[in-house]
Amino acid sequence: MTLLAKDDHAQQTLPLPSNLFIAAKMSTASFEGPMHYDPTSEHEQEVPLPSAPRIPIAPNVLIQPPLTRRGYGPPLVLLLPNIPNPPPIGEATPTTEQIDPEPVQKWAEEGFTILAIFASKGDQDEWSMLKALEEGLPRLGEWEDKGDLDVVKDKAAMIVYDHSILSTDFFTVTLPIQALVIYGSDTLETVKTHKTIPTLIHVCTPSSRPTTLPIPSPHKSYSYVDQSDHHFSFPGGPGYNHHHADISHARSLSWIKKRMDGPWFDLEAIWEEHTGHEFFTRSVAKTMGTMVAQPYVNHVPTITGGVGRRDLTAFYRDHFIFSNPRDTVQTMVSRCVGLDRIAEEFTFSFTHDQMVDWLLPGVPPTGKQINIPMNAFVSIRGDRLYHEHISWDQATAYRQVGLLSSHVQFRNAEMSGQLRLPTSDGNDAANMLMTVGAVQSNQMMSWGLEG
């Protein structure tokens, strides 16, 4: 994971609960706020998402201002193919295509000001790519931060989603582009690098083995196996693949941000704002207000969470925010901050005095003390969360509430008896994570079949 190298990248201050700062310094968060959902509460009034209408400037060219709370950002040019639009996002259960927005919205949510140029459909009033760059880029200055010295001035980044719509002279003309990304097929005969612009190339290969392109520095390429269509990153397009689209987007973002030196956001502040509304203000509306238009949360061990704004709102309201006991404590062990995501280790402890159905679905209160090591992988798009992947050892959770025996009957062709399960039955796993040497290693290796 790429770490931020400059402290001044953390440019945004977010309104967090004051007691959250104290908790963060102690690496421990204890939970407060109401215990029941009240739709009439001032904290449950809908938080409007960032909104900025698209501005058409030619039949095949438009401007999309940034869709962030910051409201400004550096210029990014998107050269887009004419393929069917993705399915509209509605009230139905979202698909992966609906969760992954089309490129104009996605990159605006990342904090860029977008100049979108669509491939020709034959309209006589269409602009060429060079005319769109010449006349469109100056118009993006309205959404640039005039005081942001980290943003490269008079330059833009560019993403080409279909190499086949590029003209031959594209690779020889001088362009006001600082970083270039191209999606294409798997040979350099069809996918070229620009003579002066650092270029990242995403190629597809129908083979199960990655393709290696002989590209000189400062250019770079990645290949995506078992992928036959280079539109794999375009929702609604042929060959769309959510997994490859997500990976290629993160690589493109890293390539562009490092060369444009931005836009940067304080990811820790965004994450703590989100968790502050989950556990301190206990507000569904404010929690959802920290997330992109279509977010999701996956609690992997119990397959709980929510996909899409409607379902995730219901999950937070009915199964998470008000389901955590009053004495819940979350203790941070480590945190790694990347370019667009956070990886965190923490322990999660509470008294099981009420139903905690996201963690122990269907299990009535047992009154037991619970202390579980957890991992969170959090993806942040611009200045709002996109998704959370949370994992933990469910066997440890069941052992601590008395639902999993320490021994089970075992039998095979050679032996039988009571098998001691290699699972932690108390705080050992959490203590091992919290304090090096607090628990003797390898004890379970002496366990096994007994009698």
TrEMBL record:
The organism's place on the tree of life at top rank: Eukaryota
One of the protein's GO biological processes: polyketide metabolic process
The name this protein goes by in its record: SnoaL-like domain-containing protein
Species of origin: Kwoniella shandongensis
